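Example record

One chain of 420 residues, shown exactly as stored in the release files.
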Amino acid sequence: MSYLGLNAVFLGLAALVAAVALWRRPAARRLYAASALALVAVLVLTAVFDNIMIGVGLVAYDPTLISGVFVGIAPVEDFAYPVAAALLLPALWSLLAEHPPGRTRSTTRRTTRTRTGRMTEATHPTGPTGLGHTVRQVLLSSRPLSWINTAFPFAAAYIVTTGRVDALLVVGTLFFLIPYNLLMYGINDVFDYESDLRNPRKGGVEGAMLEQGLHRTVLISGVATALPVLLLMLVLAGANPWSWLVLAVSLFAVVAYSAPGLRFKERPVLDSVTSSIHFVSPAVYGLAVAGALVTPDLVALLAAFFFWGIASHAFGAVQDVEPDRQGGISSIATAFGAAQTVRLAIGFWLLAGLLMLVTDWPGPLAALLVIPYILAAWPYRSISDAESERANNGWKRFLRLNFFTGFLVTMLLILWVVLR
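Predicted structure tokens for this chain:
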């Protein structure tokens, strides 16, 4: 299929969903006004950065699969994806809204028993039902805010190694963007239900608060969305045993982190190691499936990413010390205590930065990227367990930093290609 044909599929689906949204929710017109302004900005950025990446040789296109119409040296097909997003996102926002503005969601309270035998009373959300509500809850359980954290490492590793945009890149990025996260976080939300009820952070971008009636739906949705994309990805990758092994380890870590009987998330230190594998393994898979040559420089870079992931999980666990202990759940933070865990996180970020210093230029510049994370965690280095919830403010800064860091890493990748 040509890129133009692929564009037609995406644009056709987006236009259909947009038409349904405008028909069922006339108020969606206001969302499209804002979306149009955002689209102009994204199209300009697409034109600028596509021309840069193609110009320096970061990506290339098969001339037999493109229309031959260009904006500068960027094929016009690249501009279809921002248009599709501008059509689709406002439509989904309006169609999946749980309740009209001005109405609040009701709650009920239920007494539950923890695994330690303690009786607790927790608030259970109740409210609308139906397909829209179900789809919205399934999407929330996949943590859309974090999709890019697994898709970007795969795409970056594959593009830098192969220098091309092809079907495997598109399918692999799609897999690590949505199905992978739905599996990972959906399993987590289902089997952490009782402890999440006592966690005030849950119920938004930091974790869906799923009604028990949706648990089966979320698990089935994860498998149903992942399996066909995964099979297609394996077909496109061909006979590549090393990539199969990496993918098997990655998927095992996704399940083992939360599933009963394994529950790596309740094994201090192993919880942070497994969480880091969740984000590093897509990059390793991208390198393996692209046939990258293993060098000391590449090993140092992946090790730095791995230690960055350990630090990030450890720091994130600090804010949940009290809810985890009340629920009888162990973690690296409950084992070492809040203050010591923050210091461990700072140490692992520092180690990641030091490893980047021994990589080839411009890799050492990436060592500077750990500094904002260390600064975000530094105020909590002496925090007590009783006050550990305050670390949530630092965690929110961490989430915002990820987007800024992703942009800078992209710029460094472009610079690396130019210097190569």
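Notes: Residues 99-126 have pLDDT under 50 and may be disordered.
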